[in-house]
Amino acid sequence: MLLAGVPRGKSAASVQHNGWTGSLTLNNGLVEVVVVPAVGRVMQFRFVGEDDVFWENPRLFGKVADPRSEEWLNFGGDKVWPSPQSDWQALTGRGWPPPASFDSAPFEARMVAQEIEMVSPVDPNYGIRVRRRVSLDPKQPVLKITTVFEKVSGNPVKVSIAVITQVRDFERVYVALPEKSRFSQGYRHLNFEVPQDLKTNGRWLSLTRARNFKAQIGSDGGTMLWVSDKHALRIEAPLVAGAEYPNQGCSTVVYTNEDPDAYAELETFTPLRTLKAGEQMEQTNTYTLWKRTGKEVDSEAMKILGMK
Question: Which H helix or E strand runs over 134?
Answer without folding.
Answer: strand 128-136
